[in-house]
Each structure stands twice: as structure tokens, then as C-alpha cells.
Design a protein that fits this description.
- With 138 residues, the protein is of the alpha+beta class.
- It has 4 helices and 8 strands, in the order E-E-E-E-H-E-E-E-H-E-H-H.
- Strands 1-2-3-6-5 form a 5-stranded mixed barrel. A two-stranded antiparallel ribbon has the order 4-8.
- The radius of gyration is 14 Å and the shape is globular.
Length: 138
């Protein structure tokens, strides 16, 4: 069991990546179970703004799950009592990352956002970030 950390959010790279200050050290955090649009994708900047508004310069409870291949801590993040991972899905600012999802309750939240055409779901054919990255590698 990895310890829960109390940290201050000092940076937001995009809609699913934060930098936090924990015990005097900066740590990169990748929000678990979600994948936000890339910066050049539709809603990429809005997704970043959404996460910034929710978390930037606020205390966050970090619940680490694992490390990713870039060395970032993959975690559930609670900012001011709000589950940022879940809230990004609810606001239509991120997709559930099917490959890594653990919390099955996120699917009903995403379905509601999609049905309401909230955020990225307002787009007629939203492109999953992992597909966008694969297409733009070529």
C-alpha cells in the first residue's frame, strides 16, 4: 500500500498531468484512469484550464497507484475535496482510459457527459487522445 500524500499543486501541464510540491520536493502526477485531449486537439486547452481551475495552487490529496514509463506517479487526485479524475470525465474534459481503468463507476459518468454533449462530447466525432497520438506519430 502506497501512502497518501498531501501536496500543493504548483503546475498543470495539460488536462491529466500536474506538478505538486510534497515535503519540499516537486513530483509529476499523471491522473489515473483518464486521458485528456492533447494540447493540439480540440478541447486540449479547455481541458488544461478545467484542471487548473480545479487544482492549481490548492492542496491536493494524492493517492498513488503506480509509476508510468516516464517516471510520473499515476494517482487519483483530490483537490479541495473534489476528485479531479472523476470531475474531468464529468465535465467532458477527458476520456476514460479503458486500458487502465479500475473504477467502473466512471463509465456511467462518461455516458452522462456524452449524452448531454458536454465538453469534448459536443464535437461530432471526438478523437480519443491515444488514437490522436498514434496518428500524429507517423
Amino acid at each position: 500500500m502506497i501512502a497518501i500524500l498531501m501536496c500543493l499543486v504548483v503546475g498543470v501541464a495539460d488536462g491529466d498531468t500536474l506538478t505538486v510540491l510534497c515535503n519540499g520536493s516537486q513530483v509529476k502526477i499523471r491522473l489515473s484512469e483518464i486521458d485528456a485531449p492533447e494540447k493540439r486537439q480540440p478541447f486540449g486547452n479547455r481541458s488544461k484550464q478545467s484542471l487548473s481551475g480545479m487544482c492549481l495552487q490548492k492542496k491536493a490529496k494524492i493517492k498513488p497507484q503506480t509509476k508510468d514509463r516516464y517516471g510520473r506517479t499515476v494517482a487519483r487526485v483530490i483537490c479541495d475535496g473534489v476528485d479531479a479524475n472523476e470531475e474531468q470525465i464529468k465535465r467532458g474534459m477527458a476520456w476514460i482510459y479503458d486500458k487502465y481503468v479500475r473504477d467502473q463507476s466512471l463509465y456511467s459518468i462518461q455516458d452522462k457527459a456524452r449524452a448531454s454533449k458536454i465538453g469534448l462530447w459536443a464535437d461530432n466525432k471526438p478523437i480519443k487522445p491515444w488514437e490522436y497520438r498514434r496518428e500524429n506519430k507517423r
